[in-house]
Design brief:
heterodimer; A: four-stranded antiparallel β-sheet; B: 113 residues; 0% helix; globular
């Protein structure tokens, strides 16, 4: 059974970078797609982007200048970096597996709450 | 971006009752491959979202048949019959036809009357 677990700082200062790690067990990240989604206070959900089995990436155009998703296949982990954060980036961040050809996120981590505040 | 509009925002229900949630898209969700990539999730309190329905009407593994999805084009519906306490939470639709980005509906909170 695939399991995903987010980790990283819960508090980030404005203008700094937000960095999160998603550790995956039970499934190789060299298969399918691995992405990040965030939920803002008040229920709004936003798909941020993904990294594919081959290492190619796709990002939400609204974030394209600030976001980077990378991976370490030797550790079966993938990473989110979001630069120049503001208070509007305060959210719960989820990592998830996306299934090729179905194009749906079928397995999610438990989420990491990140607050942007000075 | 494709705008996904969910209604209602809040949905009071009695246990054992039946409810429907609507999801409308700003453009057709029929992909050039002929498939429609519209999916439904439930986020229970304190949990991460869980997949219920994929590609309009396919129940994900372990999802009871009380949940059913239907629709086409721009208009989709999730029906829940015989509502149980574990069905309470926030429901989201997601489109992955038009990409990037994939886009979510605003959510519908199912709560007890």
């Amino acid at each position: 059974e695939v399991q995903l677990q987010e980790s990283g700082p819960g508090l980030v200062k404005p203008s700094q970078s937000l960095s999160l790690t998603c550790s995956v067990t039970g499934y190789s990240i060299t298969s399918n797609y691995w992405g990040w989604i965030r939920k803002f206070p008040g229920n709004k959900m936003e798909w941020m982007g993904y990294i594919s089995y081959s290492g190619s990436t796709s990002y939400n155009p609204s974030l394209k200048s600030r976001i980077s998703i990378t991976r370490d296949t030797s550790k079966n982990q993938f990473f989110l970096q979001l630069n120049s954060v503001t208070t509007e980036d305060t959210a719960t961040y989820y990592c998830a597996r996306s299934v090729k050809w179905v194009w749906v996120m079928d397995a999610w981590g438990q989420g990491a709450s990140v607050t942007v505040s000075s | 971006d494709v705008l996904m509009t969910q209604t209602p925002v809040s949905l009071p229900v009695s246990l054992g009752g039946q409810v429907s949630i609507s999801c409308r898209s700003s453009q057709s969700l029929v992909h050039s491959d002929g498939n429609t990539y519209l999916h439904w999730y439930l986020q229970k309190p304190g949990q991460s979202p869980q997949l219920l329905i994929y590609r309009v009407s396919n129940r994900f593994s372990g999802v009871p048949d009380r949940f059913s999805g239907s629709g086409s084009g721009t208009d989709f519906t999730l029906k829940i019959s015989r509502v149980e306490p574990e069905d309470l939470g926030v429901y989201y639709c997601l489109q992955s036809t038009h990409f990037p980005p994939w886009t979510f509906g605003g959510g519908t909170k199912l709560e007890l009357k």
